[in-house]
Amino acid sequence: MRYVLMVLMIAVSVSFAFSQKLKAEEVIAKHIEAIGGIENFKKIEKRAAAGSVKFRSKQPAKETDGRAVIASDKNNQMFFLQLNSQEYPNEKIGYFAEKTELPFVTAGARSPLGAFLADHDSLLREGLFLGVLNGKWALINTEETGSKIRNVGGKNVDGQKTVGIEYTPKGVGSQEFSVRMYFDAKSFHHLRTVYTRQIQSSPDTFGQLGRQAGVKQTLTETYGEHRAVDGLVLPHSYTAHYVTDSNSGVYEFVWKVDIAEYRLNAEFVDNFFKF
Questions:
Q1: What is the DSSP string of 80-132?
Q2: CA distance 87 to 73
Q3: Which of 12, 204, 213, 241 is deepest in the core (most CB within 10 A)?
Q4: Which residues pair with 48 in a beta bridge?
Q5: pTM of the predicted structure, to 2 decimals
Q6: Does pLDDT of 9 surpass 70?
Q7: What is the spatial distance between Cα 61 and Cα 216, in angstroms, rounded to a whole number?
Q8: In which band, very low, low, confident or very high, does the pLDDT at 203 lie, cut at 50, 70 and 90?
Q9: If you average pLDDT over residues 175-192, what whole number do you get?
Q10: Sequence-separated (6 or more) residues with CB below 8 Å from residue 109
Q11: Which of 127, 137, 165 is nearest to 149 (CA)?
């Protein structure tokens, strides 16, 4: 028994070491194969996912729940939440006909998630946000988008060994912003994307009162419960975890979506992709 366990441990270690040596392009190719292949993915031009969502924030302390819909076709993508809260009744995130749509949640104000995406609309434009849940998934068309990718090694994600790549959207060259994706080192399913923006503090200048404080913004998308759906393997849980950390405090927000149903090759009514 001990010998068998030792052999298995060696085999796992060899497999993990091999995955770390893969080029970023090879990691993406294995990921696309894991979800069902590029042909299967592209032939499903219209797709929708529906389920429940739980929202919570630590500072300020709030918690609510509601319904979630994620939908897309070849020209549009939508993330819509209907929440049981007067203060935060809904979340509307869209990219329709090459135009970002991020309506205010309340008069003159977006949610923290909407505000972050408004500042980084390349995440919507290139199909990074929502990962494979989105029919415009960025990794299907890296050659067309002109993005840059490189292997950055892996780390443990919820106890699973991963292989990581760094993705630089076209036209985004700032060292303040980074996108890193992590894939299961064995199955190559997409487990996590981490978007980080680090704004360094700056010294006093004439006309300013006090030092300009730095801030770190991190949006982490986590995907789980990958299961087969009509020829594709898709996640059935999705979490967006957004944190801002500055001298004024740490603010944390979590949106957790449990997907109950997928509809692939769905039919959308006229003007469905419109807020």
A1: EEEES-SSS-EEEEEEETTEEE---SBTTB--HHHHHHHHTTHHHHTT-TTGG
A2: 31
A3: 241
A4: 71, 263
A5: 0.87
A6: no
A7: 20
A8: low
A9: 93
A10: none
A11: 165
- Of 263, 265, 255, 257, which Cα lies nearest the Cα of 225? 257
Structure tokens at 1: 């028994």
Domains with residue ranges and CATH for the chain: 2-264 (2.50.20)
Three-class DSSP category at 218: strand
State the burial class of residue 38 (Cβ atoms within 10 Å of its Cβ: 0-12, 13-18, 19+). middle
CA distance 158 to 220: 13
- The confidence score (pLDDT) of residue 6 equals 43
Query: For residue 143, what pLDDT band results from cuts at 50, 70 and 90?
Result: confident
Report CA-CA distances (Å) from 151 to 23, 159, 167, 183, 274: 6, 20, 9, 11, 37
- Residue 127 in tokens: 């199909």
Residue 146 contacts by C-beta under 8 Å, 6 or more apart in sequence?
170
